[in-house]
Every structure is written in C-alpha cells, then in structure tokens.
Amino acid sequence: MLSKIRLAFLLLLVISSITAYSQQPGAPWPKLRQNNLNTGVGVGGGSNGLQRWVFPAGQFNTLSPPVIAADGTIYLGAASNLLAIRQDGTLKWSFATGSQIYTAASIGADGTIFVGSDDFKLYAINPDGTKKWSYPTGNNVGTSPAFAADGTIYFGSSDDYLYALNPDGTLKWKFFALAYVDSSPAVDSDGTIYFGAGYGTFFAVNPDGTQKWAFDTGGISGIVSSPAIAPDGTIYFGSWDHNLYALNHNGTKKWVFPTNDLIWTAPAIAQDGTIYIGSDDKNFYAVNPDGSLKWKFTPGNKVESSAAIGSDGTIYFGSMDFNVYALKPDGTQLWSFKTGNFANFDPAIGADGTVFAASADYHLYALGIPSTTVPIASLTLSPSTVTGGNKTQATVTLTQPAPAGGDLVTLQSSSSSATVPASITIPQGSTTGQFDVSTTQVAAVSTATITATSGSSSQTATLTMNPPSLVSGLTVSPTSVIGGKSATGTVTLVAPAPASGAIVTLSSNSASAIVPQTVTVGAGNSTATFVVNTLGVGSTTTATLAAAINGSTKSANLTVQPPALASFYLDVTTVVGSASAGATVVLSGVAPAGGVVVKIGTSNSNAIVPAQVTVPEGAASVSFAIGTKVVAQTLSSTFIAILGPDSLSCKLTIQAPSLLGIGSAPDLVVGGSKTVVTGSVMLNGPAPTGGIVVTLTSANPALAKVPATVTVPAGSDTATFTITHKAVTTAQVVKLTAKAGIVTTLGNLSVVPFEVTGVTIDPATVTGGSPSAGSFDLNAIPSTSSGAIAVKLSSSATIVSVPATVSVAPGQQTGHFIITTKAVPASNCGGR
Length: 832
What we know:
Number of helices: 0
Strand content: over 45%
Oligomer: single chain
Radius of gyration: 42 Å
Helix content: under 10%
Shape: flat
Number of strands: 74
Largest sheet: 5 strands, mixed
C-alpha cells in the first residue's frame, strides 16, 4: 500500500503601521529650497550679517547645505555624518553613514530626517539620531528628498533613476531618467514631480511614476539645478549650457535667459515674481517674469550658492570669493560676511531671521544679532582727491564704543561715479570702522558727497575725482599676418595709470582685424597689450587700428594676407582595393568669405578623387574621402592639391586583397551526427575579376574532410564550403588550413563523441515483479553514414534487470528499453 503525503501551506499576513510624511509644520527651513515648490523663500528676515556663533566642523572635511527643524535644530551633512546642532551652536548628536554626504537633508512631518549619501543609500533618521530605515540605490544619492501629500518620498540617484518610496521605506516606483539625477525634485500642487537629469533633459512625472512630459534643452549639458515652481505654474531651472529656462505647465518653452557660464544653482522666486539665480560667469542675476534682465550683481568670483529670500525680501547667497552677501530687492548690497573659503553652499533662514551659511572652510556660520546705534563723531576720506577709477578709504568714528552686537552704519554716495557699500558694522567695543569708496573715470573734475548714518546721526565727507591721463602711442607686432593669425597691440600712456587703472577704447576700420572694445592699463603702468584677431581674406588687406582715451587718439596699421597651401596629407598610406582613405588640405591661415577652392588630381584611375574641394569660410583645413577600385595587384597613386601657383602632393598604395582567415560554424560538432558544419574563408577586401582560389586541407580528413579548393567570387570577401565529419570515441581537434598565394591561415574544428545526456524511468516506483520503461537521450542525432549508435546499459540491483545494449537508429536521438524486476517479500510491522 502506498502512502500519500499532503502538503499544507500557511499564509502569513503582516499588517504594518505606516506614518505619512510631508514637510515638517512650523519648521522655518525644513528642506533644500525651504518648500516642495523650491521657491527658496523663508519665514524670517532682517539679518544684519553679524556673527552670532560659528560651529567648527573641520574634522569632517566636507559640508552640505543646512536645514532647520521646528525646534530650531540645524541639520548639516559633514563628511559621512549627519550632524544635529542646537540653536546655540553646540553639537546635539551625530549619525554616521557609509560615505560622504553632499546634499541637504529634508525633515518630515513627524520630525524624521531624510538624507542621501554617497554610499548609495537614502537614510531615514529619528529626531534622537537613531536610524529608522535605509533604502539602497545603484549609485550616489546626491539630491534632497521632496514629499507628496500622501507621504511619498521623492529623490534622485546617480544610477539614473528618480525614486518614490512609501513612508515605511519600501519602493513605490522608480522612473528611469536616461542619465544621472543630481537635481533635487520639486512637487507641484497637483502632485507632478519636476526634476532635471544629465545630458540636458528635464522631466515632469505623474504621481504614479509615469512620464507626463520631457523637455530637451538641445545639448548634452547636465541639469543639476533644482527646479522652482511659480504661483502661475511656470517652472524655472538652470543648466550647464549656461541658460536659465522658463517652461509652461505643459512642458513648452516660455523663454530662455542666457548667462556666460555653467549654472549649478537653483532659482529662487520672490513674492513679486522676480527670479534670482547665480552663474559661474561671476554674476548674480535678477530676472523679470517675462525673461528680461532686472539687474545683476557681480561679486568677486563664481556664484555656486543658490539664493535664500527673507520675509522682508532681502536676498542671501554665497560666492566663491569667500563672502556671504545680503542684497536689497533693487540689487544694492546690504552687507557681506567674509568666511575662510568658498561660500558655495545654499544658506538657510531661521524663524528669527538668522542666516545659517556653510563654507568650504568647514565652518557653519550663524549670522544676525540685535544691534543698537551710537552717534557718529566724524567721517574722513584718505585721500580726499583721487583720479577717477581709483579707490580711497573712508573712516567712520563714533562718539563712544559700539555696544554688544556692534553698531550698524548705513552708507550713501551722491554720485554714480563714487560707490560705497550699503553698510558696515563697527565691532563691539570699537569706535572706528573703515570702508572703500570706489570711483569710475570722469571726463572732468567731479565731486561726490559720502554720507554715513547711525540711527538718527549722520556725517558727510566730500570726495574730488580727477580725469585720467592721455594715450601717447599705439604699436602692433608683427605688422603683417596671414588671415586667421593674431598680432599683439601695445598702448602707451603719457603717464602711469592711476590706482584703479586707465581704460583705453580700441577700434579697427576693417572687419578682417578684430580688437577688444577696451584695454586696461594697470595701476602705476604706462603700457598695456591686447590681442588683435584676424579673419581670412581673399586679397591683401590693410587695417587701421586706433586707441583712444579722454579725447586723445593714436593709430597703427596691420596688413592681413590671404592664405596659401600649408600641407596635404592622407590619414593612411595603404588601403586594400575598394576601401577609402581620408585626405586633408591645410592652409596657412583661415579661408575668407566664400571659402577657398583647391583643385585635386590623381595619377591613377583606380583612385577616385573630387575635382576640387572648398575650405569653408573661417576654417583652415578641409578633409575629403579618396575612393579606390578593386585591383588584382598592388599599385601606387600620386595625388596633387593646387591653389594658385602652389601645389603639394602625397602618395597612396592600393593593395590587392589577401587571405584573412578560415573558420567553421559551429566550431564544435558531435562526430557522425546530422549537424552540418559550414566552413568559411575570409579576405581583407573584395576579390578582383575572376575571384580568388583558396586551397583547403584538413590535418585529419578521416574525421573532418574539406574540399580541395574554394573560390571567393569577384566582388565578395568570403566563400563557404561544407565540412563532412565522422564519429569518434574520444574528443579530437582537427586543424584546418587555407592558403591563397603566399598567405596561409589556420583554424580548428573540435569533434566530440556521442554521449548520453539523460535517462528517464517511468514509472520510477513499481511492485516487485512488475516491469517499467526506460529511455535516454543522446547529445546529437546520428547521421545515416554513422549508422546506429550502441549504448551499454547496467543495473546496480540484482532484482532489477536491463538489456546489455540499446541501439539508437540514424535520424533518432532517443533510445528506449524495458526494465524487469523480481518480487520482494512484504514487511510485517505492527501486525498480530
């Protein structure tokens, strides 16, 4: 009697509690760019730029932008750690990840902190600094998470995906973005997720993870700028192609605002719709909602810090000139704070208006403390008279030492030719403060009234500005160049330039010689040089250059000559007939408008060249292809390039085709099977008329036989043939040889024996004395020529018998046999 076993399956249903996340209520700066729309507008304002405290993080090597929780805790990435810093600037706790943290954290509704790391993970961290969960991605996580209303967490990774996680850290979906995602996403009120990716594509993704639309910037420049969404639905983002883009809600282009270098920063959107963005061209831009420039501010270096906007409209950002800046909405500077290195991290604004800014000097600065005012005793200038373009230093003296927090003094100038900072702060306990007054060149003697104000107290000082000196000479070297080459111009002044330098206006009367608009003679110098770039000309041209300043003008002539042939060369010197070679004609200068026509000739009709080629306008060379015909024997062709009286030549060798190799498909076969083996020979080029006869041999024709010859037909570079094979008892490798002319090549064919690949018994369990059926498969089907294949059988049990051999007939792959068994005695367990 046979027993039957029933399998029972237990289904375990696990129900977990899920907390829905959104941006933490009451937090003044809970994530990068403050909110899900990434507008960068804070709830606090009015910082006076005075240092409240500084947190030294030098032991952590790298920092990331700070964020601020509802209880005032500041979270900051430092090397591979997330730091929690109290409001007084002391360390609360530190959480270690597996690698560097380069991006800002985000704070969920229940206080959970989410941060990405270069260890390829997104972490969820409890407010006490313990780990809640982590989610692994395929590469660095360099974006700050955003939240959906239903608690979904969105973030990007350098593994080319945008991820959507459930609040418990499980994957909801992921969206393939074609390239790395270093742009932190923004989430619109309708749930649409916006972000940029590498190679210039900007995406809009639906809440279910499907693509809503994609916008291509038209190049391969990456988008690392986080997008910002305006109240009217316009989406703004910057790109490495130097542009600020404005897109309509449906993904169509609204306008493009160009800068002059990479944009790393995210746009900030003020309450009046003004868009603020920095660029590597060392400018910070204010752009109107229609895409026109409102104003720009130029710090001393690149701007790679996104702006934060205070509740009073003040704009805060950092620059790689080490300064954190505060600007008024009209673009004038309110104050600046000097750090010890690049200030290229996005600042955050606390509820009380304190600005938190990290610097590459590995410190986090808290800027903004209350300030009282002290009356001003005097304002002096030293010197009080300068040449326009130079600076002077001003000194403010108070009637008594500045109180705790320092004394804020605002500054003004009555003339646009003399500019002053918006304000200075005289440190606590000091009675004096200094600032620079910058001036521009003036055409006549001018004056400016400088005013310093502290509270209701003001003092003034008068600055006199004189015009600069005159130009005395202009030279150019060399005096003659070929179009496209450059020359050097030298301007000489009558007297050394003032402290701010002397700006000389330059001009040229010919479009073939291009000079900069101005050149500056440095302070204390009498000369300055500049580059004269030239364009291609069709005939000799004389250009007159001029230098002018304050009504004085000097000139010099430069002769621009047309180009001649400089070189003519091939990219290869030998080809097989029918192949092509590349040729290049190089001029001694660039081609003028309309280009330069160069005639081309050949000495052999087996080489095909154009009758002429044209070097395009502005280029100094042109490349073209030389075609060749199939030839029966190697020959040479000489080519000539002619331009006017000049000519240059080069040679190309055209070879007859030769044997390249021999092979078989397949290269391993069961000997004597029905498998057809096709051999092939290859040439390195098409065969000529009449074809090429290739001699074939086999090292063991008894096992693998090839025809004596095979012909590669004219115009083809391959020919095939059939290899017949016989059965073997052990695996063998047969060497095949092909010969054509003096070239011999070798190939191998592996011949293996028939083998049993599997045995089947059905049924596998029988009552003793009952038969069963067996079968087995061979590794190939025997051919008619090999005959039947005999397979030996054996049994390990005396009560089971099988036939000694079974034959598999040609054309069959399976053998069948009968298994006989003997009766076995029944067991008597547990009976009476």
